[in-house]
Amino acid sequence: MLTLALLGIAVAGTLDQAVAARQAGDYAGAAQLLDTLHPLVESEEEARWNLERGLDEELMWHHAAAEPYYRTAIDIGGDAAMEARYHLVVVLDDLGRYDEARAELTALLTATRLNPEFVPVLGIEQGVLDVHTGHVDRGLRRIERSIARVGDVKRHSWMVGRGRFVLLDTRAAEGERLAFEGQAARLKRKLVARAKVLKEVESELYAVIKTEEPEWITASLLRVGDTYADLADDLVAAPTPPQLDSDQIPIYQAEIARKAEGPRTKAYTLYDHGVSFATRLSWESPVVDELKARRDELAAVR
Question: What is the pTM of this model?
Fold first, then answer.
């Protein structure tokens, strides 16, 4: 009996080691430790084991692989099941399985054991799902209201960052739909309008940075960088105003090319900031790979 008791203590301690490894960013190491440990895990720790194993897969960007672990934890029940369902909602959303994500979110919101503190946090995800399913205005309002109601922003900074990124992304897309065409005066008005949108997008970027969440900071720097790069490309590709004669056209095109250099340089700077930020934190993700690729592409043409 003493040997079994000591083994149980050792197993629980190893679970804590796996959590520590995950929190230190060693997701593969944590997963390996959990897999080695699994045959020794007692029934009362099985839900927690599955939750931790799912987290490791999710943090390695293997969302589909995380799903079965979360579902197993949910089936077992208990506190780990509640947390697993929260992560399952996000995973299903990120996989584009919105109806399933909404069903799991509804189950979570109606759970009798749900801490009221988490209601606005889940409200942010409700808004994100609204946006992803085409209910954009409703989703944006819900995200903004829910963020304002979050009590402990530092504790829930990841979901706050997720919501703010969706606000930023949606606003950036609105600006990108302002096409440059027609007379020179009309082009100028569209340029002013896009500059105004970019100012609002940058304001949201600063709000994302305040969350101190690397995932959303790097994603936002990439998104805003892309918005500036698109502005530069749209300027260069804009139709030449029809009233210009053959002598005026090259002058106009040279001026437009000059104006495009500003947003192109801004895009490069944002990409480079994202790469530098990720390097300082030793943060790795598919988004960081995109930041590096975009920065290097612009470096080749600047």
Answer: 0.90
